[in-house]
Design a protein that fits this description.
Elements: E1 2-6, H1 9-20, E2 25-29, H2 32-36, E3 44-48, H3 53-63, E4 67-70, H4 77-90, E5 93-97, E6 110-113, H5 116-124, E7 129-132, H6 139-143, E8 151-155, H7 159-167, E9 175-177, H8 184-193, E10 196-202, H9 210-220, E11 223-227, E12 237-238, H10 241-253
Parallel strand pairs: 1-2, 1-4, 2-3, 4-5, 5-12, 6-11, 7-8, 7-10, 8-9, 10-11
Helix pairs in contact: 1-10, 3-4, 8-9
């Protein structure tokens, strides 16, 4: 059986392809929302809930996992680290599906930082409204250093996330509860509507809409603040859905 770690649109596509190829798949997502993205995919099992390293290993042993296909978000470094350690301890295969990084295409106003904290430090010394599109996990980094009245947070419209924004001092009028994907034109409209000077994004690749954000920033003449991906030694990496699915199937066949 293949343990597919996911919770994004990528993992749904992988699950569909693996099922079509006749593979036995258990998709594990950290959240119920992530699990719901795979709803309707026939021929696979799903579960949700964050796993510690020990819990991941026990799950792999219990279900007879022979390959972990890691399709977690590019910024879910701890989940990937746990998966790599688990496969090494159990002697099973590990395959990483990694979205291609975004090319800035000569956009001189795209500024890269190695962490949300570094990006927040930069923004704290600047002026102008900031559109955060990095999700809810890094909100604390920005609210701790940037005045809340400068921040607009575009986040998933779930009660937990909205509540977190409010608890951190972001007023309801500055919480943009929306679920993507977002086109360049929609990003441009938000930039104009809220008089944005900086748009903050992760390098989430084409699937994460990074190009549309950079395109909107360039068209509107504002700066894009990009948080670089964590540096990880994954081992075998596949950058396409087809490659990752085939690699996982071949890894099982070789065991």
């Amino acid at each position: 059986m293949i343990l597919l770690l996911g919770g994004t649109c990528d993992s749904r596509a992988l699950a569909e392809l693996l099922a079509k190829k006749g593979a036995s798949v258990l998709l594990s997502a950290a959240t119920e929302y992530g699990e719901s993205l795979a709803s309707g995919v026939t021929g696979i099992e799903t579960r949700s809930g964050r796993l510690t390293s020990i819990e991941l290993e026990l799950l792999a042993l219990e279900r007879g996992i022979r390959c972990i296909l890691d399709a977690t978000h590019p910024y879910a470094a701890q989940a990937s680290k746990s998966a790599i350690e688990c496969t090494r301890r159990l002697g099973i295969a590990y395959i990483r599906y990694e979205r291609a990084k975004t090319q800035c295409g000569g956009f001189s106003e795209a500024l890269r930082f190695d962490s949300a904290a570094q990006a927040a430090d930069f923004l704290s010394c600047s002026e102008g409204n900031v559109l955060l599109t990095t999700g809810s996990n890094t909100l604390e980094e920005f609210t701790a250093k940037v005045e809340p009245e400068r921040l607009y947070a575009r986040v998933l419209p779930t009660s937990g996330v909205i509540g977190k924004c409010e608890a951190l001092g972001i007023k309801p009028s500055r919480i943009i509860g929306m679920q993507g994907p977002f086109s360049e034109s929609m990003n441009r409209e938000l930039i104009r509507s809220y008089n944005i000077s900086f748009i903050v994004t992760k390098d989430a690749g084409a699937e994460g809409g990074t190009a549309e954000k950079l395109g909107a920033a360039k068209a509107e003449g504002i700066k894009a603040v990009i948080i670089n991906r964590p540096q990880m030694e994954y081992g075998r990496i596949c950058s396409t859905i087809e490659c990752a699915a085939q690699a996982a199937i071949e890894a099982i066949a070789a065991m």
